[in-house]
C-alpha cells in the first residue's frame, strides 16, 4: 500500500513487512519521543494536536485503502525496524486473527443528545393532568417550597428520561451492530447524555442509518436525537498495542 499521508512532523510513512503482515511506520526524533520527553509533550496541546492529527490521518488512509487494519495508539514507539519485525513475528497468529475479525468493518460513534427545553416540555405534559388537579399552594412560602420540589423532581425525571433514551438507542442499534463500547461522558458535555462506539460491517451501514432515523422519529418529540460520526478505523475494537 502506498501511504496517502505524511507521518508525524511531515516525515514519510514507510512499510515494514514480515510474514505477510505489514506495519506502517514513521521515523520520529528520539529527543521528543523517548518516554520521559513524550510523557511531558503529550500534556502540551500545541505539541500534541498536529502530531496526533497526522497519526490519525495515516490510520484513516490505511483503513480506507485496506480490507482490514489495526490502528495503534499515538506514541507507540519501537526503537528499530528489527524490533518491529520481531513483534510482527511473535504476534503473527494474534494479529492475523484480529485482522480476520475486523475485515470489512468500521467503527461509528453515536451520541444521544438532549434538547432540554423540549424534554422538559414533554415531562410537563405528562404531569399536566395531575398538576391541574392539585390544590393551589396556600401561601408564598408554600409556593416557594412547591417550586423547589418541582425543580428537583424535574431534574430527577430528566435523568430517568436520559437513561430511558440511552437504553432505547442501544436496543435499536444492537440489532445491526453485534459489538459496541460504551464511552465516558463528562458532566460538562452540554447536551450529550450518552455516547457509544459501534462496530459495523460495510454492508450494514444503511441498516444502521435506518435504525438511527427510526429512533429519531420516535424520540424527537421527547427531546432526544442520535447523531453519528464515521466510518472510523477500528480504534476501540482492534485491541492493537
Number of domains: 2
For the secondary structure, the number of strands is: 6
What do the pLDDT scores average to?
A: 87
Biggest sheet character:
4 strands, antiparallel
Q: Count the DSSP helices.
A: 9
Cα gyration radius (Å)? 25 Å
Helix content percent band: 40-55%
- Quote the beta fraction: 15-25%
Structural class given helices, strands, pairing?
Answer: alpha+beta
Along the chain, the helix and strand elements come as EEHHHHHEHHEEHEH
Spatially, the strands of the biggest sheet line up as 4-5-3-6
Distance between the termini: 21 Å
Q: Note poorly predicted spans.
A: 141-147
Shape: elongated
Secondary-structure blueprint of this entry?
Layout: E1 13-18, E2 21-26, H1 30-33, H2 35-41, H3 45-65, H4 81-90, H5 92-102, E3 105-114, H6 116-133, H7 140-174, E4 179-183, E5 192-201, H8 205-219, E6 224-232, H9 235-238
Amino acid at each position: 500500500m502506498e501511504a496517502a499521508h505524511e507521518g508525524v512532523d511531515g516525515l514519510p510513512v514507510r512499510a515494514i513487512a514480515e510474514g505477510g503482515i505489514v506495519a506502517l511506520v514513521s521515523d520520529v526524533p528520539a529527543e521528543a519521543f523517548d518516554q520521559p520527553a513524550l510523557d511531558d509533550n503529550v500534556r502540551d496541546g500545541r505539541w500534541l494536536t498536529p502530531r496526533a492529527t497526522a497519526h490519525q490521518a495515516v490510520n484513516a488512509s490505511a483503513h480506507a485503502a485496506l480490507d482490514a487494519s489495526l490502528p495503534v495508539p499515538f506514541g507507540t514507539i519501537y526503537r528499530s525496524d528489527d524490533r518491529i519485525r520481531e513483534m510482527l513475528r511473535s504476534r503473527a497468529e494474534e494479529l492475523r486473527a484480529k485482522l480476520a475479525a475486523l475485515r470489512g468493518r468500521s467503527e461509528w460513534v453515536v451520541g444521544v443528545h438532549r434538547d432540554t427545553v423540549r424534554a422538559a416540555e414533554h415531562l410537563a405534559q405528562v404531569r399536566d393532568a395531575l398538576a391541574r388537579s392539585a390544590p393551589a399552594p396556600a401561601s408564598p412560602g408554600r409556593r416557594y417550597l412547591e417550586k423547589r420540589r418541582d425543580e428537583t423532581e424535574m431534574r430527577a425525571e430528566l435523568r430517568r428520561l436520559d437513561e430511558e433514551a440511552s437504553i432505547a438507542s442501544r436496543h435499536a442499534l444492537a440489532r445491526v451492530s453485534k459489538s459496541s463500547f460504551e464511552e465516558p461522558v463528562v458532566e460538562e458535555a452540554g447536551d450529550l447524555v450518552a455516547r457509544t462506539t459501534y462496530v459495523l460491517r460495510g454492508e450494514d451501514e444503511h441498516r444502521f442509518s435506518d435504525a438511527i432515523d427510526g429512533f429519531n422519529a420516535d424520540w424527537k418529540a421527547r427531546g432526544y436525537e442520535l447523531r453519528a460520526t464515521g466510518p472510523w478505523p477500528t480504534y476501540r475494537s482492534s485491541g492493537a498495542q
